[in-house]
Fold each of these.
Amino acid sequence: MNRIIRSEWLKVRSTNLWWLMLIGVLAFTAIAIAFNMLTGYVELNPGTNQGVPDVSPESIATNLYTSGQYFGTLLAMVFGILIFTNEFFHQTATATFLATPKRTRVIAGKLIVAVIVGVIIALITTVLAVPSGLGFLASQHVDTFLGNGDVLKSIGLNWLAFAIWAVFGLGLGALLRSQILAVIIGLVAMLIGQTVIQIGLGLMAHYFHADWLNKVPNWLPSGASTIMTSPGGANGIAWWAGALALLAYGVVAAVIGTVITRRRDIS
Amino acid sequence: MADGQIVVSGLTKQFRRVRAVDNLSFTVEPGRVTGFLGPNGAGKTTTLRMLLGLVAPTAGNATIGGQHYADLPDSLRVVGAGLEAASFHKGRTGRDHLRVLCAAGGLPYQRADEALEMVGLTPAAKRKVKGYSLGMKQRLGIAAGMLGDPAVLIFDEPANGLDPEGIRWMRDLLSGFAKQGRTVLVSSHLLSEVQLFADDVVIIAAGKLIRQGRVSELTDADGMQRVRVRTPEPQKLLAELKAPGTAVQTEDDGALLVTGIPAAAVGHAALVAGVELHELSPQRADLERIFLELTSGKAGIR
């Protein structure tokens, strides 16, 4: 297993992928930090905004410390998709499966690399977001809340989100194999699919008087992710239930993808 | 079971509508270069991919040293294979491509440099594959196959895209491998290539075995002796070539192609006729012609 992890890690390191990912993570995190500082400033100085509801300084701190989560998890997912689908896109699957004929091992190796990269992305965003958030809060003469349990939990859950989204992406890639299709479906599921489905289900719930339909979106990937990253849970569902739901999507996709990959003719 | 012997028996692959490989059986012996020959679409690549565990056979068996490829504990140390010149990540350097495989196969990275040296790619080692010519990619494919110093080598169309010098290099390399006692199986759709570097040949068409044997046997078995002879006075010579079973054709360049008697008899006829000879050469049966005869009507699009 060590061999395959080393090999998969070198695959990532030896192409443009890693520094494109790095640039993406740095850029998006910087933008998110700037945005969160701006909204934080507006919220902490009510004189400049009339009519915006008061937000607790605690949630402003949480927002700042987990800056970059939204696009960072998106990049982690795309990374997961790419490390699998690249094998077919660049036709390297032949060489890979000649060197490691046990295909399940290859996928397991990629899964571990995906988790490692997810954690590295989390590390980068945290290293950028926490000190800059601290500096901002200090400059605004607001408590930093860094000793606060829920704030720390949020930072921890942030890390979990990156790792699980990377696994989700890998599962999606293994399932679909087509790079373009997997990236499009992944991004749609994460960015707009949730809203569209939510609205659709909301209308259906109203029309059929079936209130439970309104709860379904909580269990879709991006809804589950939102719940997972809220320390107190959301919509009455605990954070760990959201984490398990998202992990389940990734694992189920990866397992089906593995079964398909084991049987598939590589040509 | 001989070490490194390849045994294909009853191998069959049915794609949706096409039977790409049809009850194919043959063996490949160590210490020899075996050409795997067939027209385009004959099922060569599918056969090699089944042998290497990449494609699942519909029926039959293919083993290397008595084992299925997927069951080999250290596959790269037993079998080296190069399948397509296109199957590299274009944004990765040749050296890194080999290192990735070294890591997966449990081989030291140093093997990547040694293999590059062997195929003459050291100057391009740190260049990305997208800057490689087809011939360089072929060399990289061979290098990948050599990483584990394996006893069995399998290459699919390795001479594609090579210039004449490259083809000669390939021939020397392959026969060198065979002399070291390795099993070497090389596919090609070009007879001239196989004639150049193979000792044995397995000919398939439409997924079926047409012939297996030594290249020399195959050409001798043709049986037809042909002698090419050129003289300024062909009519005088023709008059002497009247022995039973002798047939003479006139070539485009005016030379005579004599069938049915050995070169010595043609020379004697010339002496008797008193004509001057500019050329007298026995012609080896042309494998190309045998190949076309053997596979005629079986090739083509299926």
Note: Residues 103-139 of chain A form the longest helix (37 residues).
Amino acid sequence: MAISRDDIFEKVQEVLVDALGLDDDEVTSEATLMGDLGAESIDFLDIVFRLEKAFDIKVPREELFPAESVLNNAEFVSDGKLTEKGLAEIKDKMPHTDLSEFEQDPDVNKMADLFTVDAIVNFIDNKVNS
Amino acid sequence: MRWIWIDKFLEFNSGQSAVALKNVTLAEEHLHDHFPGFPIMPECLMIEAMAQTAGILVGEARKFEEKVILAKVKKAVFHHYVRPGDTIILKAEIESIAPEAASTVGEIRRGDELIAQISLMFSHIDNNLAGKKFPEENFVFTDMFNSLLTGFVETETAE
């Protein structure tokens, strides 16, 4: 059964409000998890567990948040930026994320900004409606 | 020495749930200061008792091969004071468990009375800190925990 995008957003919002102790209106589509919403590493696992429960799906953590495995691979990072191979890798692994701006300057420090509320909604949308 | 803050397990269902008991006594020195003339168990120590109950449950689920560290207090709501002479019962359940971490939900009761609701996240640190290395030996689960689980783990895991 297909779930509408609005319904997905609402549930994702609820998950983030509970996991990060936020108010509803802080969780906008564009908000970044780390920068805007203050998520730390253990929160990502908390979010994964809560999403699994809320949508009754399996969410492999590296599928939703693949940054760690990419950053730990020397082939993908050089001089604080992602290499072409690294970029290709995250494009492949993060189809739910808009990378057009990041591609211009693939600074690893900016990778945190890729994890937005919208990226989670896209990810869930692909998972439950495909 | 290792600080054990629960007295015994009453139930232990491997990988699922555990029930532990703690007796609170005025012989605990901190109660004389918390507060003078009005001793009550500090809420943070109720969280510690739940962290031990749930942490041992999570550790046993992976046969104590992981170093299990309390990583996040997801929820801690307290409804009543706990006083010297009280016996509190801590019930913890594993909600989710993955290679990197586990989350638990739990309740503390005194008789039928709900004292607190405490939900926690535990990290399996060898799998969870970007490849950071820790000592080989499991410094979280030392032999002292075995005595707490005597009579529970063998019977429960043999099923």
Note: Confidence is low (pLDDT under 50) at residues 155-159 of chain B.
